[in-house]
Structure formats: structure tokens, C-alpha cells
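For concreteness, we quote verbatim a single protein encoded this way:
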Amino acid sequence: MRSTNPLGRFRKSLRRRARRIRLGKLVTYLELSERIPGWKRGAEAEEMALAARTIPGDALIVEIGVFLGSATMLLAGARKLADSGMVHCVDPFDGSGDEYSVPVYAEIAAGFTSSLRNQFMQSIRAADLNDFVTVHDGTAESIGEFWKQPIDLLFLDGDQSPEGARSAFSIWEPWLKPGGVIVMGNSSPRQYEPHHDGNFRITVERVIEPAYRNIRIIGTTTFAEKC
């Protein structure tokens, strides 16, 4: 229902205008991302889009844990605006993960008539981002076993169990370039459900100085630059 408060509408309009001035054309992909079920919203979504947009040259981005592509929209949209780069999306598209997340994925997936992969690809095609996305059907381990390319931005947001998060980090983090950006989803200090704190544990153990610099937590996400 539309707000009947003129002052509230005015303030909301001002916030939207300020956002467009600050982010420019990135706002288009932030708004598209918000239409897709996902967990990156507000300031952390903005930071992710900006981090992807400001990588110079032909950026190589890897996203571990895609689900329906809400975050992919931010990453690939940013690279489309840069007119270069590729987002490599790694996910088995079967709703698997840690024991806390699986029922959440299943509840969301039940609202769609096609598979998670099909829903993901529909969103990518609708946003005309095909040329900036490469899909790898598989787990962090099965795809990582054959990976051989240096990475500019690594977004880890797959299996959140301690075992799953540690495995993904150990396989993929060595490929992150010095100066590259690591983004750890679901890693802010807070009370976690059992077996759902894998990224938080890895972050406090490994994403620290002197291995990383410019470490900051925005929302539920940690951003840092590899030294």
C-alpha cells in the first residue's frame, strides 16, 4: 500500500535521488537484484557492486554460492557497465548446503515452477548479462579441483557449515591475486544457528592483518584486500 504520509514520501524520494547520484547506473542492477530472493541488500549490496565496478581491466570474478543470482546481478551488472570482465558462478543449483540453510532454500524454491538454474538463467537473460556470466554447475570442491586462473574478486557465500566454508576457502583463496578483493558473506559477529557459522569462523581466523588490509564489515558481509 502506498504511504499516505507526504513527508515520508518526500524523504523516500530524497533517499532514492541521493542513491542515484552516489551510484549512477549501478542503481539499475541494485534494483534488479532486490527483485530476486537473496541476502545482499542495502549498504552491503552497494559495496559489492562498487567493488566489482572499480576493478581495472578485464576483471575475473568468482562467486561461490549463487542460488537465484541476486548477488550475481550486482557483480555482472557492474562489469557490464565497465564493458569488460567475467563473473564465474559456481553452484550445483540443487539447494544443497548447511543444515540450517537447506530448508530455507527449499521453501523459496517451492514458489517457482522451474529449477533453480532455470530461474537463475532467466534473470541473467532478462538483464542482458549473458556475456558477463559463465556458469559452472558443481560444488566449490568439484569446480575448484580444476581451476587455474588468478582471481580479482572472490565472493564466498556457499556452504556455511564450518567444514564447507573451510574447504571452499582453502581451495579458492590461493587463486586470489595480491590486491584482489575477498568478500565473505554471512560473516559478521553475531549469534549463529548451529553449524551455520563457517564463514564467520574463517573470517576471524584468516581474513586478518597482515594477510589482508582495508578490512571492513558492512551489514552481514566482510570485505578485504589481499596483501
Summary: The first strand starts at residue 60 and ends at 64. DSSP finds nine helices and seven strands in the chain.
